[in-house]
From TrEMBL:
This is Ectonucleoside triphosphate diphosphohydrolase 1. Signal peptide: none annotated. It is found in: Membrane, Caveola; Membrane. The keyword Glycosyltransferase does not apply. Catalyzes the hydrolysis of both di- and triphosphate nucleotides (NDPs and NTPs) and hydrolyze NTPs to nucleotide monophosphates (NMPs) in two distinct successive phosphate-releasing steps, with NDPs as intermediates and participates in the regulation of extracellular levels of nucleotides. By hydrolyzing proinflammatory ATP and platelet-activating ADP to AMP, it blocks platelet aggregation and supports blood flow. Its cofactor is Mg(2+); Ca(2+). The chain crosses the membrane at residues 12-33, 440-459. Keywords: ATP-binding, Calcium, Disulfide bond, Glycoprotein, Hydrolase, Magnesium, Membrane, Nucleotide-binding, Transmembrane, Transmembrane helix. Belongs to the GDA1/CD39 NTPase family. GO terms for molecular function: apyrase activity; ATP binding; GDP phosphatase activity; ribonucleoside triphosphate phosphatase activity; UDP phosphatase activity. It is a multi-pass membrane protein.
Amino acid sequence: AMKEKNPWHKSGIVIVAVIAVVAVVALVVVFVVQNMPLPQKYKYGIVLDAGSSHTTVFIYEWPAEKDNNTGRAEQKHSCNVKPGISSYAGTPWKAGQSLRECMREAEKNIPKQRHAQTPLYLGATAGMRLLASDEVFRAVSETLQTFPFSYQGARILSGQEEGAFGWVTVNYLDDRLKQGALDLGGASTQISFVSKMFDGSESPGNSVTFRLYGNDYNLYTHSFLCYGKDQALKMALSGPPAIRDPCFHPEYVETKEYSKLYDSPCVSDRKPQGAPAFFQHTGIGNFQQCQDVVRSLFNFSQCKYSQCSLNGVYQPPLQGVFGAFSAYYYIMDFFNLTDTSIPLDTVKERIARFCATPWQQVKQQNPGIKLKYLVGYCFAGTYLLTLLTDGYNFTSETYSNIKFIHKQIKGSDAGWTLGYMLNLTNMIPAEAPNEPPLPYAGYVVIVTVIIILLVVLFLF
Ligand SMILES: O=c1[nH]cnc2c1ncn2[C@@H]1O[C@H](COP(=O)(O)OP(=O)(O)O)[C@@H](O)[C@H]1O
Ligand SMILES: [Ca+2]
């Protein structure tokens, strides 16, 4: 008789073989996944600075695998569009369209696999504070949402935020000394610094507290709306009929539209009754007189605090060094005066000489400079000096405490955007390091169990 086969024996072998194969595959998979070479990983953040005269898209980059306590976010790329979104009040959809090209550049500059987790913020400053158009915001938001990033919303920064985040930026990566921040925009200007004499009690509205690298800072900050250089110029022009304007060069003559001059809330209530449609704008180029015009924009008559800068705004005594950026830098760079070891009197003389130079000659001497900026440097230089000295109380002695800066250490632009992103992404506390898929203990346990299983099966 034939020996009967034991069916249990055959299927037992099959089961053992299957388990063995599964175990080997599992072992290989766990091993490979755990030890996969990790690519150098970066994380990214995008901040749009929607200023009054331009929008700049900033891309920041930082290593993902280590903690961020040491502060290593850097500007990877920036892209600028003009004019600012606040110029599209009549055609909001164009405000959205205007950002497309720079956003496409952002797509190219950030690796695809990171797009979805890259936060995208838009912060608008004084131009939108003055315009406050929901339509423009809606259009801009709609456009930004069509990009593959993690859109976190568009909002108007308060003046305090704009000042405080500018201060965070200039002090980020640079903990040698706590420097103040001076930001001159087109529609507003900010001053922020820490002062021993300031604890916030005298004027709580000017106080911001920050924790940076484990220290608490009580910051004095103020933003002057309408005192950016473009709105200040409008105010200067809308004073007593500026028939012969000391803030413009001799020989400068231009016919201008009254309605364009009075199109902003900073000057709309100054519009004279029955003003003509056009006026002749004629320069005489006189620094002293221009300075008087600028001083007339500052109100020094009332101060209900121990001391004020201008317009009855509290300001504690200046302390320490200041980084001055944005238009502060552009203006002084044009005059070759970014070196503040040059005495203040010499600075004044040079700007006075420039103002007195006839317009035709100024144009000849500066062929590479855009006319729209060139024509404004006499006023801008005078305004900058008057704001710093009569406004903020810098003196010939303290003038050299100002550093006109454009770039931070490591090439990030000085401005509020970096500080804004660091704050919103909680980058001061550490981010978890880029760990392997399994915790180490789990890895050891799984590998051990599979090896024991294999040995047992083998013996069996
Ligand atoms: O090359 C330049 N020369 C002179 N001024 C410049 C140059 N580039 C930009 N600016 C000025 O810098 C200022 C930037 O202000 P921004 O547009 O950020 O306004 P905001 O901060 O008040 O919202 C504007 O007044 C603009 O005209
Ligand atoms: Ca600005």
